[in-house]
Structure formats: structure tokens, C-alpha cells
Design a protein that fits this description.
Number of strands: 22
CATH topology of the largest domain: UDP-N-acetylmuramoyl-L-alanine:D-glutamate ligase
Shape: globular
Number of domains: 3
Structural class: alpha/beta
Strand content: 15-25%
Bound molecules: adenosine-5'-triphosphate, magnesium ion
């Protein structure tokens, strides 16, 4: 049993109660004091992966992935897990040889969510949910940075934004946190509302509503409604910060009775910049009334929009304007999110982390406006999860390649190229990433700017690897 210097975050009895499960402990101590101590012991965090599990944590074996997490129960305890959930269907294999305290439940994911919901209910700070078609993670980081300037702030780690990530984030809440900024994603209808019911946000930031996840949602209006549902889930007196440049989002929010603060470039926005200067590889400089001028290091106009969202949050919650501006200035691009790399005299704009039609358009605008470039090349791969309209959407995306050449790879490469041809853009299809990389290597020269963009599944970084520019 793990010994805690202070009380554990959750005791074994808390866990069983919150999960609605049954605690099973082999060799329960016979002495009353020892038995008491056992029940008062517990876990100091939660992990779903034995490779990253820290001693004292609860291990949650998930069955949704490639392998059933129950296979790793013994491993988890060897690594110092203080307890584990175990689905009843899998318990037979462990009965009588439990490797540590187990909480038996019907469904581990559901139990994780129940524990997280009850745990979150015991925390009383400001929880800000962040959703949207593009820019969630960046906006989450920007909002957390400004709120962090005013007090201890928890934020979603990386991109842990789904039915597992949201509960794991909530379970990291501690009494000292005054604010939590939680990324909430969806790929099927109702998911945002379900996650919001667990997180219970007091405020929401919705970046935009586009066509990402069209496959799961069916129509653009349905996507906008789904995003807007986060606003509908806010507690009484809540406020939603909405990307003002997404008219579909604003339309979907109209039917929801909640105070809305619109941020962005649109004329009607409640918070909009007075001036914006594109600094190319150095980001942008912009100014907003009430704040000092800001030098944002993230690249592209869409990132200015995300920063405006963070400023809207800062203004609403009374963060010192100079501190908020400094927090925004401190942020640097995440890996694969419009990273600028110099390579063989050329400039590589590595935005290969992910792509959907909105983020592709934003990236193409950045490429088209790239200062000092005498030649521009867009290296594009597939955008996934777009459903039956995928071919048409790729043709439209190809058409948006302006002032650049196109090198395309993937199942929709021909569609991208067909669109580009309609726009009079020189375009080539490649059979695979290796062929594209070899052709690209021959084109790199001073003055050339190359954008890399595709969905995560396309792993476009393989092209960078092959040309030796993985960074
Ligand atoms: N406001 C925006 N509008 C359009 N595109 C954006 C915006 N913000 C960021 N992007 C683009 O989207 C890409 C992904 O950014 P980010 O990771 O912040 O989004 P996300 O919504 O969290 O994505 P995911 O769905 O993978 O979680 C970036 O590389 C950038 O090109
Ligand atoms: Mg994200």
C-alpha cells in the first residue's frame, strides 16, 4: 500500500462510491486500525497508460483501444498503482489473485466519467470549456496563459479532449486551482453536451464552426449546433466567447439564451483589433483597446483571432491587461502547428499536425502572404472524416491554393489537383509520400516557401523525414 504524506486525493472508499463499484481487496488486515488505514488510503491521480503511470495513481484499464487495458493490471501495480478499476467481465481472470485493490465496475470508461463528474462537483473555481472546429488547443493554451496570470490555472494537457481526456483533465483539479481551461472536442452528435455535463463549465469559448467532422454530423448546420451546445450547457449566469468571423456559429448561438461576447475581425465583434501587422515568421503585432500592443509569436491571421478570444476572456474576468498581454506574448507554436524551419535556403511552414477545411484555408492564406517568398509550394495531403462530400471539399480546397504551386499526395490528391487546375494553379499528384519528397527536395532553394498540411492520419511529417528536415 502506498503511504501518503498527506491525505490522498481520493480514498479507496471515495473511489468505490463515486464509481458506483465494489471495492475488492485481497488479504484485508485483521486489526481494526490497519483496516481503517487501508480504507483511508487511496490514489493521488489517475492514469490510463502504464507507460506513463506514476506511483500512487489509480489505473483505469480501457477496452476501446487496440488492446484491452485489463492485460496491464498486474503491470500497473508493479509500477506502483495504488488501485485499479476492473470491469466485472474481466474480473474472473483476477479473482483470488488480485494484484492490488480493485474497484469492480460494469464499464471502465463510464466509471472514469462518473468519478470525474463527482470529483469536479467538489471543486468551486471557474471552469472554461473550449471547443470549435479549428484552433481549440491553441485557444485553450492562450486562455490558460492569460488566466494563469491572475491565479493558479489548470489546463488540458496537449490535446486530451475526448471522452477519456476530459475526465482525466478534471481529475487533475486541485483546491488551489482558481481556473480550469478544458478543451472539449466531438466527432459525433451529442458528445459535447455529454462532456459538458461532466465538466459543468461556467464559461465557454467557441472558436468557429466549419466542416471538420462533417462525416459524423451530416450537415454544416448540425456541426454549428453541436458546437453551440457547449453554450447551452453553461451554468446560469454563464458567458460564451464566440468567434465572430464564423457566421454559422453566431447563427447557431442565436437560439441559445446566454450572454455572448463576440471576438474577431468582423465589424460587429465586441472585441476586435484596432490594427494588425503581419510579421511573417515573427508572428503578428496587433492592438486592442484597453490592452498594450501585443507581439504574438504564433503565425498567421487566424492565430490573432485565437488571441483575441483570450483577451475577451481576460477582459471579462478582470485580468490585469498588461499581464494578459505579456502572457500572450510568451506563447510559442506547438509542434507541427505552423512551425517555421529554415532548410536549404527555403522556408518550411510545418503545419502538418492536422488539417480540416478551415485550418487549411487559414494556412493557405499564410502561405500566400508569406513575406519575401519568390516561389510558394503547398504540399497537401488528405483531410479525413469529411464523409460523402470529401471529394468536393478537396476540389474546393485545391481551388483555394492561390499564388502557389500544389504538390498533392493521398486518396484525394487528384481532387485537390483538379480544383487547383480550375484556379489556374500548377499542380502535381504523387503516388506516395516518398515520391513527393524526392521531387520536393529538388525544388528547395532560397526564396521558396513550402507549406505542409494534411490530417493527422496522413502523417505528412514522413515527407520532412525523407528530405532530412524533421526538425
Ligand atoms: N481560428 C482558427 N481558424 C482556422 N484555423 C485555425 C485556427 N486556429 C488554428 N487553426 C489551424 O488549425 C490547426 C490546429 O490547431 P489546434 O490544434 O489549435 O486546433 P484544434 O481545434 O485543437 O485541433 P484538433 O481538432 O486536432 O484538436 C493549426 O495548425 C492551424 O493551422
Ligand atoms: Mg486540439
Amino acid at each position: 500500500m502506498t503511504a501518503f504524506a498527506t491525505a490522498p486525493v481520493l480514498t479507496l472508499t471515495d473511489l468505490a462510491r463515486m464509481a458506483g463499484g465494489d471495492l475488492v481487496v485481497r488479504d484485508v488486515p485483521s486489526g481494526a486500525t490497519e483496516r481503517e488505514a487501508l480504507l483511508r488510503s487511496g490514489v493521488d491521480g489517475v492514469s490510463i497508460d502504464t507507460r506513463t503511470l506514476a506511483p500512487g495513481q489509480l489505473f483505469v484499464p480501457l477496452a476501446g483501444g487496440a488492446t484491452d487495458g485489463h492485460r496491464f493490471l498486474a503491470d500497473a501495480f508493479q509500477k506502483g498503482a495504488a488501485a485499479a478499476l476492473c470491469e466485472r467481465r474481466a474480473y474472473a481472470a483476477w479473482e483470488g489473485k488480485e494484484p492490488g485493490p480493485l474497484v469492480l465496475v460494469d464499464d471502465a470508461t463510464e466509471a472514469l466519467q462518473r468519478i470525474a463528474r463527482r470529483f469536479r462537483d467538489g471543486w468551486h473555481g471557474l471552469l472554461i470549456g473550449v471547443t470549435g472546429s479549428a484552433g481549440k488547443t491553441t485557444t485553450k493554451d492562450l486562455v490558460a496563459a492569460v488566466m494563469g496570470a491572475a491565479g493558479p490555472t489548470l489546463k488540458t494537457e496537449g490535446n486530451l479532449n475526448n471522452h477519456w481526456g476530459v475526465p482525466l483533465t478534471l481529475l487533475r483539479l486541485r483546491p488551489e486551482h482558481r481556473t480550469a481551461v478544458v478543451e472539449i472536442a466531438m466527432n459525433h452528435p451529442g458528445e459535447i453536451a455529454a462532456l459538458a455535463a461532466i465538466a459543468r463549465p461556467g464559461a465557454a469559448v467557441i472558436t468557429n464552426a466549419g466542416s471538420a467532422h462533417l462525416e459524423g454530423l451530416g450537415s454544416l448546420e448540425a456541426i454549428a449546433r453541436e458546437k453551440a451546445s457547449l453554450a447551452g450547457a453553461l451554468a446560469k449566469g454563464g458567458v460564451v466567447f464566440a468567434g465572430a468571423d464564423s457566421s454559422r456559429l453566431l447563427a447557431a448561438l442565436k437560439s441559445i439564451k446566454v450572454r455572448t461576447v463576440r471576438y474577431g475581425f468582423a465589424a460587429g465583434a465586441d472585441l476586435r483589433p484596432e490594427s494588425v501587422e503581419d510579421l511573417g515568421p515573427l508572428g503578428s503585432r496587433f492592438s486592442v483597446a484597453g490592452f498594450p500592443a501585443i507581439h504574438l509569436r504564433l503565425i498567421g491571421r487566424h492565430q490573432v483571432a485565437n488571441a483575441l478570444g483570450a483577451l475577451a476572456v481576460a477582459r471579462e474576468f478582470g485580468v490585469d491587461p498588461a499581464a494578459a498581454a505579456a502572457a500572450i506574448e510568451s506563447l510559442r507554436p506547438g509542434r507541427g502547428r505552423m512551425e517555421v524551419r529554415a532548410f536549404r535556403g527555403a522556408t518550411l511552414l510545418v503545419d502538418s499536425y492536422n488539417a480540416n477545411p478551415e485550418s487549411l484555408r487559414a494556412a493557405l492564406e499564410t502561405l500566400a502572404a508569406w513575406p519575401g517568398a519568390t516561389r510558394r509550394i503547398a504540399v497537401l495531403g488528405d483531410m479525413l472524416e469529411l464523409g460523402p462530400d470529401a471529394a468536393r471539399i478537396h476540389r474546393e480546397a485545391g481551388e483555394a491554393v492561390q499564388g502557389a504551386e500544389l504538390m498533392a499526395v493521398g486518396a484525394f490528391a487528384a481532387d485537390l489537383v483538379a480544383g487547383a487546375a480550375r484556379a489556374g494553379v500548377a499542380a502535381r499528384v504523387f503516388a506516395d509520400k516518398a515520391a513527393l519528397a524526392d521531387a520536393l527536395a529538388a525544388e528547395l532553394a532560397p526564396g521558396t516557401a513550402v507549406l505542409f498540411k494534411a490530417s493527422r492520419g496522413a502523417a505528412l511529417e514522413d515527407v520532412l523525414m525523407r528530405i532530412g528536415a524533421q526538425g
